[in-house]
Amino acid sequence: MTEIPEHLRKRAAEARAKASADDGGDAAPAAATPADDAPKSEAASKIPAHLLERSKAAKSKKAGGEVEAAAPAAAAAGGGGVATAVAAAPAAPVATGPGGHTQRLLTVVKSGSIQDVKAVPQDKVHTWPHLLVVEFVACLFVLAFILIFSVFVNAPLLELANFNETPNPSKAPWYFLGLQELLTMFHPQVAGVTIPGMGMFLLILAPYIDRNPSMKPEDRKFAISLQTVHLMYWAVLTMIGSFFRGPGFNFIFPWNDGLFFEF
Amino acid sequence: MAKNKLPVSQQIQKKTSELVDSTQGSQAWSSIFRPGSIFRKGYSDSPRNRSYVIMNSVLYHLHPVKVKRHAVKVSYTLCLGGISFFTFILLTVTGIFLMFFYRPTAAQAWDDIFALQSSVTFGLLVRNMHRWSAHLMVLSVFLHMARVFYHGAYKAPREFNWVIGVMLLQFTLLLSFTGYLLPWDQLALWAVTVGTNMMGFTPVFGEQVRFVLLGGVEIGTDTLLRWYVLHVLFLPFVTVIFMAIHFWRVRKDGGISGPL
Prior knowledge:
The structure holds 2 protein chains of 2 kinds.
Chain A: H1 6-40, H2 49-77, H3 80-94, H4 111-114, E1 124-126, H5 127-152, H6 177-183, H7 188-209, H8 221-243, H9 254-257
Chain B: H1 8-25, H2 27-32, H3 38-41, H4 47-55, E1 66-68, H5 74-77, H6 80-99, H7 109-119, H8 123-150, H9 159-181, H10 186-199, H11 206-214, H12 221-252
Helix pairs in contact in B: 6-8, 7-8, 8-9, 9-12
């Protein structure tokens, strides 16, 4: 990810603060200079001060160039060392801009126009400690819950398996009781295989059927309703199969006839 | 002599720090912990060390160094995937304990469970934990699936991870169902009879499916052995492989899905 590290960001902020402080220092004389120059140069001609200055610089540079061109000849004569140095010295301030700057900004190229920025910086936190602590506490809670539950509630162990004695009712494990409930309504091939098979198949295909790219609940009313109906359907079937079916798998009310349910 | 001696507490301190230095400087220590591990240089709270905790330990398999801020909110995930994984680990640990006391034959299975409960230290407690963790795992995997659906987290690029997740839900159900038979009591026998009769109605191959599942035409000692091997070896093996892919894809697809 293209997240900027904290320390680099800090360093950049410091540099920026320092630069702006320096600019503030420079800006004052820069602003003062044109004001001083204006009365001296021909203010009536309305030529901006910086243009005047630029032409002045160009003129003096040209003159300097002539001197420099003359320099090799002088060097050949024998006293050239001094002449070159003199010519170079006035050339240095000539190249400066209106504010006394030696460089200027041509244009600003935004990073997006030349670099393909694919990732935007995200708000992130360190996995340690922020995530690991949460996970550790969650694990402790689950462990404590299971341990305490296991101390007080024993897993069922009925009498030895006996093929000659069918308990009434015979029930599947609770997570299959929705299917067993379906058996009371449909042929076993439909209830026991076709419906759960189709259900699982559709569940696997969910991301390929649901082409709606939005994750917002308000854009997914149909998908959410459908899934809620689907989950409630299984939950209700499982509840009925678990608690409302007694001997002979007949419908009962648990508060009248007792519970026929083992975990 | 006595005047040159340091107080006892300082002597102990000195000895301790010498011992720590020689241990952490030893080849054995540095071969165990990677360069940059917090166990080499000690831990003080700094962004660099926070990264090193993950980066230079086995946790790097599971977690990146940084995660999205909303990913650590319990209200978003409800920890359901993590709880499923944790119950799986708990089931593995308690299951290994149970395997020491259990023989998968019709003649011995029930007696072994009974002896485990009555005469093995913590036998009853560990069996209870195994049973309740199994039910909790079915529940938490199911709720995890519902949570992911309601957040729309199965959408691109996470479609395939959803497919793996649904497979894991089915493996969870199979793991629980194969374990259901092993106590070999009336509950186990008849619950499995109902379940396998249902599977026997598979179109076209019904009889064959039932025969393969039962290892015969009826439930018997062969069924017990078959389901035992499925329960303690085959299904956990497949589940672990699918979990590895599942966790890897969570990271590769950009961490958990964004906030709504």
